[in-house]
Design goal:
With about 80 residues, the chain is of the alpha+beta class. Helix content is about 20%, strand content about 30%.
């Protein structure tokens, strides 16, 4: 599954266009490698996303094309959240 689609389906980022912008700005890494919006994800990958002054590390548990709002958080586990200075 594409990175931008996963971010939208998992509701980490609300819109796919916004997810694409964040990826294109170089604020996302997959398993330590710089990610593009079109990067392919697999279950077990680790994402590091920079949201403003926070670094969020996420482990991907599952990939699904559609998911209900209540089940969206089951697609990933937040490993850690760090505040940047």
């Amino acid at each position: 599954m594409r990175l931008d689609k996963f971010l939208k389906v998992s509701r980490l980022i609300k819109r796919r266009t916004l997810a694409k912008e964040v990826a294109d700005q170089g604020r996302i890494t997959i398993n330590g490698n710089q990610a593009k919006a079109s990067s392919t994800l697999t279950a077990g990958d680790e994402l590091v996303i920079k949201f403003g002054q926070k670094l969020v590390t996420i482990h991907i548990n599952d990939l699904r094309e559609t998911v209900k709002k209540e089940e969206a958080e089951s697609l990933y586990t937040v490993v850690k959240e760090e505040k940047l200075n």
